[in-house]
């Protein structure tokens, strides 16, 4: 408990590590709305060790971004240790991701897909705890049985884990089958170990936080989706979505990040407004937006549209179409997105299958159209969306592709210093004893090296002529 109290400052409100979502600007925004501890997104340990650019971007932080825990994924103790040594000066602790249930974690063999390899996990945690100057923590998912979950937690504690986050869902509970997290597993782990235990799952409002702490005995709660849809949930506030959105965009000006992160956050903040059919055109524009100016225009447009309702100058019920989201609060206020239950999802899927069996035609299949109303495939639609986001890139590519080799009709090599295609460039370099850095053709250099090597080894001149 000393680490949780003295190093971290006894945090209760914690924002989970989220890939492409818990970047520095969002962490700072979350802290301003009551978060007391944040994690970096899950970082791939092998890439972190090899790629300086990836490493530098991942470790971007500021004074306001403390305390901070860096989270890694991986399955090699030595690589995880190497990555942790590079990161330990920039954070308060290193967290090992043992909870990710996504397909990418299955392919990479990390996250929750390591939870059955206890010997390997013991070696990873033990090696890091013995060789780092800062504590090692873990984030896990529960097993089907409470007994196995408790033994799992005790094993990690004995290996050197100093703080444990327990997600009350199994590895299979994800996507439309997410369902509710079971806090009884968190309670059982908390009673069995001596290290601080954080509860993850079912946190969508302040009342959930208080109830979770009381039922589980955990020292803190961690939230992911709840924070994305309402970053002010730790303050028990439901601000209009444009308020945190504009604050977030201001932070982006200070701490730039990929446009895809920005787009994702805005979609979450305005989820309920963009689900209204009359706002479908705005939703499409947000999906195609590719500049900060476009993002700001869209946010301010939504602000101007719904501020009269928020301030009471217009009555929402009397002027808007009926929506089927079953929201307690007006749709412009930040509030959690409640998923359908797994049972209802399975029921809907079965009904769709029955309908498809009855109607052998493809009436239930989603259709796509281009700007002129012509039917196109889903693949073509995705390509058109990519083009709409970066039209200048497509134009530049098309201009380059039109340039021809000065000798033949083949396309010109974009970096060739002789304005030739690769075949013509290779012939020219061979005949005239030249190099071309653009095509990586090094005839002149290699001939010079061959002569130098020959002079050192005294190779006969006749053989040199052949070379």
TrEMBL record:
The keyword NAD applies. Residues 15-255 form the DUS-like FMN-binding domain. SUPFAM superfamilies: FMN-linked oxidoreductases. The keyword NAD applies. One of its GO terms (molecular function) is tRNA dihydrouridine synthase activity. Belongs to the Dus family. Dus1 subfamily. Gene3D superfamilies: Aldolase class I (3.20.20.70). Its EC number is 1.3.1.88. Keywords: Flavoprotein, FMN, NAD, NADP, Oxidoreductase, tRNA processing. It catalyses: 5,6-dihydrouridine(16) in tRNA + NAD(+) = uridine(16) in tRNA + NADH + H(+); 5,6-dihydrouridine(16) in tRNA + NADP(+) = uridine(16) in tRNA + NADPH + H(+); 5,6-dihydrouridine(17) in tRNA + NADP(+) = uridine(17) in tRNA + NADPH + H(+); 5,6-dihydrouridine(17) in tRNA + NAD(+) = uridine(17) in tRNA + NADH + H(+). This is tRNA-dihydrouridine(16/17) synthase [NAD(P)(+)]. Pfam families: Dus (PF01207). It comes from Rhamnusium bicolor. PANTHER family: TRNA-DIHYDROURIDINE SYNTHASE, TRNA-DIHYDROURIDINE(16_17) SYNTHASE [NAD(P)(+)]-LIKE. Its cofactor is FMN.
């Amino acid at each position: 408990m000393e680490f949780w109290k003295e190093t971290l400052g006894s945090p209760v409100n914690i924002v989970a590590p989220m890939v492409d979502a818990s970047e520095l600007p969002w962490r700072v925004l979350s802290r301003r709305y009551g978060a007391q501890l944040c994690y970096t997104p899950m970082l791939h340990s092998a890439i972190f060790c090899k790629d300086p650019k990836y490493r530098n971007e991942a470790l971007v932080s500021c004074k306001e971004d403390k305390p901070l825990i860096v989270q890694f994924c991986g399955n090699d103790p030595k690589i995880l240790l190497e990555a942790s040594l590079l990161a330990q000066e920039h954070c308060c602790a290193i967290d090992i991701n043992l909870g990710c249930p996504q397909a990418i974690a299955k392919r990479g063999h990390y996250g929750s897909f390591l939870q059955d390899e206890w010997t390997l996990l013991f070696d990873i945690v033990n090696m890091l705890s013995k060789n780092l100057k800062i504590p090692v923590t873990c984030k896990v998912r529960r097993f089907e049985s409470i007994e196995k979950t408790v033994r799992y937690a005790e094993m990690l504690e004995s290996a050197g884990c100093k703080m444990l986050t327990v997600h009350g869902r199994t590895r299979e509970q994800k996507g439309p089958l997410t369902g509710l997290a079971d806090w009884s597993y968190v309670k059982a782990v908390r009673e069995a170990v001596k290290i601080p235990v954080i509860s993850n799952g079912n946190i969508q409002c302040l009342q959930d936080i208080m109830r979770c702490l009381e039922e589980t005995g955990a020292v803190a709660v961690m939230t992911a989706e709840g924070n994305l849809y309402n970053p002010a949930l730790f303050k028990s506030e439901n601000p209009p979505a444009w308020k945190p959105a504009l604050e977030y965009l201001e932070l982006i000006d200070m701490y730039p990040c990929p446009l895809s992160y920005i787009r994702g956050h805005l979609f979450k903040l305005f989820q309920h407004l963009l689900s209204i059919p009359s706002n479908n055109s705005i939703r499409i524009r947000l999906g195609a937006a590719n500049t900060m100016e476009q993002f700001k225009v869209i946010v301010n447009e939504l602000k101007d549209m719904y501020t009269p309702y928020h301030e009471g100058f217009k009555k929402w019920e009397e002027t808007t179409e009926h929506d089927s989201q079953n929201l307690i609060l007006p749709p412009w206020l930040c509030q959690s997105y409640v998923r359908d239950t797994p049972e209802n999802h399975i029921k809907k899927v079965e009904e769709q299958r029955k309908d498809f069996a009855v109607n052998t035609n493809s009436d239930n299949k989603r259709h796509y159209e281009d700007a002129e109303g012509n039917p196109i495939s889903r693949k073509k639609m995705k390509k058109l969306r990519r083009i709409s986001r970066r039209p200048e890139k497509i134009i530049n590519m098309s201009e380059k592709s039109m340039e021809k080799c000065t000798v033949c009709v083949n396309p010109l090599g974009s970096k060739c210093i002789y304005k030739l295609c690769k075949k013509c460039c290779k012939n020219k370099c061979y005949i005239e004893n030249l190099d071309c850095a653009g095509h990586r053709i090094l005839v002149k250099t290699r001939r010079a090296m061959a002569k130098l090597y020959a002079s050192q080894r005294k190779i006969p001149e006749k053989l040199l002529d052949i070379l």
